[in-house]
Amino acid sequence: xxxxxxxxxxxxxxxxxxxxxxxxxxxxxxxxxxxxxxxxxxxxxxxxxxxxxxxxxxxxxxxxxxxxxxxxxxxxxxxxxxxxxxxxxxxxxxxxxxxxxxxxxxxxxxxxxxxxxxxxxxxxxxxxxxxxxxxxxxxxxxxxxxxxxxxxxxxxxxxxxxxxxxxxxxxxxxxxxxxxxxxxxxxxxxxxxxxxxxxxxxxxxxxxxxxxxxxxxxxxxxxxxxxxxxxxxxxxxxxxxxxxxxxxxxxxxxxxxxxxxxxxxxxxxxxxxxxxxxxxxxxxxxxxxxxxxxxxxxxx
Length: 300
Known about the structure:
Layout: H1 16-28, E1 35-38, H2 45-56, E2 63-67, H3 73-81, E3 82-83, E4 95-96, H4 98-101, E5 106-110, H5 117-129, E6 131-132, E7 141-142, E8 146-151, H6 155-160, H7 166-172, E9 175-178, H8 189-199, H9 209-217, H10 223-237, H11 245-253, H12 261-271, H13 274-281, H14 285-295
Parallel strand pairs: 1-8, 1-9, 2-5, 5-8
Antiparallel strand pairs: 3-4, 6-7
Helix pairs in contact: 8-10, 9-11, 10-11, 12-13, 13-14
């Protein structure tokens, strides 16, 4: 591989699609262009964002990592823009928001479509004008930052469904980095698995070919994150330190069970809301919403 084809920090894979991603990230990193990362949960969107930052900025530059799906809708605007003392009940002092904190560095907004359309409009204005007003403020605040955002669903669908403003979508996706799911680059599974072992001071030879074949047969709905979890459990089950197909099968069978749609609906009903159900299941709210939405898109 040439220098531009080499893995990004924290990422492993030699599939042609991944090598193209490495090249694209290195090309766009020195610029100020906004980057949108698209990929299923667990594909490594955060790692791409971190690489864009590390290749662009000095190590002391701020990298503000925000999971927009975890922000309460009522507080998202003040978290993003900051607030002045007395702006609302509980605002006992001036508070800097994520945009201001990212000045001179990178603002990474994961699941940006989780923000309300009103908050998205204010984010768009801050991106374009490089200035904004804190909640309750009358004096504009300036901030120069590189915006990197991430979504787990195709951009066009989010715009069509009204979950993402069309004008903001144009601004976010000056450059789009699409990360393929692990099932579409199965040749990378042994590479990722052995790299994971090396990073934990284990020999890559501890993973037998029988284990590799078992890993390659799985569909990996949770992508690289799921693979890492399976490897962790397989290592615990391997008494002699060597991972065979037996340990892999045991690790796959002991992992989180994927609930059926009726089970998910029953959990939502019992919990009282999608957000509460997602918390009880230990999964992102957007993942649960996606599962439920997919159940309504099939044949009637």
